[in-house]
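Posting here for the record, re: magnesium ion.
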Amino acid sequence: MTSPTSPELESIQTLKQIAREEFILPGTSICGGCGGLEALRLAAKVLGPQTVFVNAAGCFTLLATFPYTPFKGSWLYTTMASAAAGAQGVRDALDVLMARGKLPAKDDVEVVVVAGDGSTYDIGLSATSGAIFRGLNFWYFCYDNESYGNTGMQMSSSTPYGARTATTPVGIHSQAGTEHGKKDMFEIWRAHRPAYVATVSPRFPIDLTNKFLKAKTLRGAKLFLAHAPCPTGWLYDPERTADYARLAVETGMFALKEAVDGVVTHTYVPRRHRPVEEYLQGQGRYRHLFEPTRNDAALRQIQDQVDRYWAGVHETTGAAR
Ligand SMILES: Cc1ncc(C[n+]2csc(CCOP(=O)(O)OP(=O)(O)O)c2C)c(N)n1
Ligand code: SF4
Ligand SMILES: [Mg+2]
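Prediction output follows.
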């Protein structure tokens, strides 16, 4: 009998409290070292087996390829635009069956959208906005690899400034690669006043687990943005995924936070942030910022943006710097 992480606990303090059981099994065609899959694997340990994943087209739709599936729960494939609408249909069907006495409450399942940043930030945002607005009781897990990965790493509105992608090459038109800044999806979701919004990292499993445990006690839309280091698209050795996941947080480029009823809390604030260059260096998508000549202006712009964000956080919370 498998059991999810600490269903009776409100929070955990040690890694040993995370369920040993796996709810997404290995042996899929996802790339080795995929940070997004690690985050989803940890999330599934809280969600447990009574789950239906409603999966927008993207890398993770290669997880379940008929007749095989790594999921202990159920899985449904949707178009990029319609995962949240699909979740609404599944949730409504379950509710109708329970209301008619055809499905015992103990057999109810958690409805969980799984979508990449292309779906989340761009193509499926309209359906998600509608679902949150209607107060749909569902989970939304975005694995954010900051590009349209499955089709060859094109820029999405989650791609950060300075990253090179297939559609934002470095050349005479741009020395930086992507010129746009990343869309602030946490704030866009928070403005909808859902039950819960959080960011999570695969390198911070206790923080991730506690956020899913907290969300499990809430009804309504529960939204997660997972930092998803992607060796294939970000061009680094797969064994370094954990390093980049940690550096994103330690440099302050990826803030770990949550919002309950709209009130934001940063769940981990390093005493001192490391320079952003420690995160950027070694990722092929940023190589042009260092070679053949250093692009000091672009590097400064990235550091300034991070510094401005944290100055705002410290100002709001009154925390010492
Ligand atoms: C409307 C639409 N446009 C384009 C595609 C082709 N397509 C399939 S997967 C994919 C990439 C999705 O990117 P993202 O959501 O970030 O997920 P990732 O591939 O990075 O996991 C694209 C563009 C599609 N399925 N639907
Ligand atoms: S391309 Fe990136 S996000 Fe997609 S499966 Fe591979 S490592 Fe994961
Ligand atoms: Mg993506």
